[in-house]
Design a protein that fits this description.
3-stranded antiparallel sheet, mainly alpha, elongated
């Protein structure tokens, strides 16, 4: 299951600044579901709830956030790229978010009927799995930087490439054989 990182801010200016920081990092409303909900943009409690849920926030949490928006707080949420949860959490925490008392409804292993094998292994079915998850290690560095930053490489904004910049799809019908110049077996 995919869930969003959500932060509440006491002013619209702080929330707008957080939203703009995410846009400057290359995140988009469509791909990463970055979301800004303010009291003025939400209007009614039902509209606030609907706007929050668009960002993949679980309903139990969205109800609490909608109530906070009715009290004048503003919300910023995003679905981070694979392996960058800690990076974006720290980035949003720099602007002093407000704690509204949301209890996390998600657990470490969340069952998804559409992807039972991934759920059984605790893997996200949409993103490529981290090879370190099986060993119990975090997928990003302790410093909170991405692998690209650690290696001094530019980050890739496109989701058409894997973590190391190689295309996810190949036009070569036998990439392994071609890599090692092995003959291809035919029927």
């Amino acid at each position: 299951m995919i869930y969003a990182i959500v932060r509440m801010y006491s002013t619209v200016a702080e929330a707008t600044q957080a939203y703009e920081m995410l846009e400057q990092r290359g995140l988009t409303r469509q791909e990463n579901r970055i979301n800004l909900v303010t009291p003025a943009s939400a209007g009614t409690p039902q509209a606030a709830l609907a706007a929050i849920e668009v960002g993949l926030v679980p309903r139990a949490e969205a109800v609490v956030y909608a109530q906070a928006i009715q009290r004048g707080l503003s919300l910023v949420s995003l679905v981070p790229p694979f392996g960058t949860d800690a990076v974006y959490s720290r980035l949003l925490d720099q602007l002093n978010p407000v704690d509204v008392g949301v209890r996390r409804t998600r657990s470490l292993l969340k069952w998804d009927d559409a992807a039972p094998f991934s759920s059984a292994l605790g893997l996200n079915a949409v993103s490529p799995p981290s090879p370190y998850r099986f060993m119990g290690l975090p997928s990003n560095a302790r410093s909170g930087r991405t692998l690209s930053e650690l290696l001094g490489l530019p980050e890739l904004a496109s989701s058409h490439f894997s973590l190391f910049g190689t295309p996810k799809l190949s036009r070569n019908p036998a990439p392994f054989s071609g890599l090692f110049r092995l003959p291809v077996l035919k029927k």
